[in-house]
Amino acid sequence: MSKKQVGGLLVLFGATGDLASRMLLPALHQLYQRGLVSENFAILGASRTKMTDKEFQEYARKSVEKGSNFEKFDESFFEHCRYQVTDNTKLEDLKQLREKIELVAKEFETPDEYIHYYSIAPELYDETTMNIKKAQITELQGNHRVIIEKPFGNSLATAEEYQQLLLKTFDKEEIYFMDHFPGMDFIQNILATRFYNPLIEGIWNNKFIENVQISLPENLSIGTRGSFYEENGALLDMFQNHLLQILAIVAMELPDKLTTEMIHENKLLLLQNLPTLTKEQVEQKVVRGQYKADSEGKYKSYRSEENVASESDTDTYVAIELTIDTPLWQGVPFYLRTGKALIEDYTAIDILLKSSDALDSDVATRITFMVEPAHGVSLVLNQKMPNNEYEPVTTFIGPDEETFKDHYIADPYENMIHDALEGDQTYFPAYDEIKEQWRLTDSIVADWKELPEPDFPNYRANTFGPIEAEDLLTKNNHEWAKRI
């Protein structure tokens, strides 16, 4: 988990695709500019698009300029970018890629650390992986790691198929599953705050906590991702991975030491203690929604988006109530929600604390972990109003913007790519964790098929989402925490 300077060669499959352009190339530039990758580092783009090295460098320049955290170019970064035209389905192309890998490694004297980043469609995993092996790329001396983007499969069955084919070329320890949310500094802050503050950890149980809320609302619509969303929806895009990984970090038993092994062991144990939902529970505790056009004309309906079926029943919103089958969390509901085209846009984890029966306040006592756009921990407490017998006054503490205003906040892809080059899997979900996430998600998908079709669209864009999401908490005498 250190941030030392590292080197190596990153082979970027799908180098001219959307993910590489929006996220990966900008993150790599920032790592280089911050001095976290050495001069013995190189990027080798591999894609079917015909390009020269110079053209790829110019492509990278345009991508970097649009990326997060960009202020100015580090011109020498682009000198470390090379390119090889590659059709992953053609063995001869992968043999030529191997030759280019050797040339680039020699040119930059990279250490024997190779990252194979799959920024490609899942249907290409099979041939890409087999051709890497047949072309003897992984026989080049050194450590070979592969990074796979989420969602890993579209069910537990497909995830297992992908895992088995990856294992034909890579060892289990060489497979890195990318979920960038655990790579966020202020998601990691949840675990660190618990670890560093015995006071906080002392109340981290059902004696003091009323409920927990994990919220990832987005004001962006689907935009150009219609085809992807038609296949996945919000449940697979956000719940199966991001939300469940955050839940595991929030609710896992705190280990004695924050080591990779102990963090993964405790996250897995937590996920194993999430009961599979019955059909009746799915009907009562899972809310799904799809947006329609707003009255101001800012958003069109989901069904009018590009590459979306006119009668689509794809979910663009989910809110789910879960319980954890352990003595520590017995009786504490965990509410998870996410959605597109909403009036709010933030990531936060609200820990709602139990209040005195004597307290009459509209604002619940709580600890909040703000991830974005605000950062850090905030606390809501109640005090005595001056010149009054015992009327409460609500006090808001933090998040302290001064603490972080002069600190560089890395994009999560910067953190995760650096960790992969270093061989650190701490915040990459383990495959056993992914299996448990699919177990729970698959049960919801299966029950949706047996339940009546949803009456979509059921929420107007630029609002807080379906009214049923409010009802999900109201029945337990709870309400969604309001941003302050």
What are its keywords?
single chain, 484 residues, alpha/beta, Rossmann fold, Dihydrodipicolinate Reductase, domain 2, 2 domains, eight-stranded mixed beta sheet
The computed structural class is alpha/beta
Question: Beta fraction of the residues?
Answer: 15-25%
Number of helices: 15
The tally of structural domains comes to 2
Task: Identify the CATH architecture of the largest domain.
Answer: 2-Layer Sandwich
What low-confidence regions span 5 or more consecutive residues with pLDDT below 50? none
Task: Please tell me about this protein's structure.
The structure is a single chain. With 484 residues, the protein is α/β, with parallel strands linked by helices. The chain has two domains: 6-179, Rossmann fold, CATH 3.40.50; 182-410 and 432-474, Dihydrodipicolinate Reductase, domain 2. The chain is built from 15 helices and 16 strands. It has helices at 18-33, 53-66, 75-78, 91-108, 125-134, 156-166, 185-196, 198-202, 226-251, 260-272, 279-285, 401-404, 412-422, 431-450, 467-474, and strands at 6-13, 37-47, 81-85, 113-118, 143-149, 175-178, 209-217, 286-289, 291-292, 317-322, 334-339, 347-353, 366-372, 376-384, 392-397, 459-460. Strands 8-10-11-7-12-13-14-15 form an eight-stranded mixed beta sheet, sandwiched between helices. Strands 3-2-1-4-5-6 form a six-stranded parallel beta sheet, with helices on both faces. A two-stranded parallel ribbon has the order 9-16. α6 (156-166) links the parallel β5 and β6. The longest helix has 26 residues, at 226-251. The protein is globular.
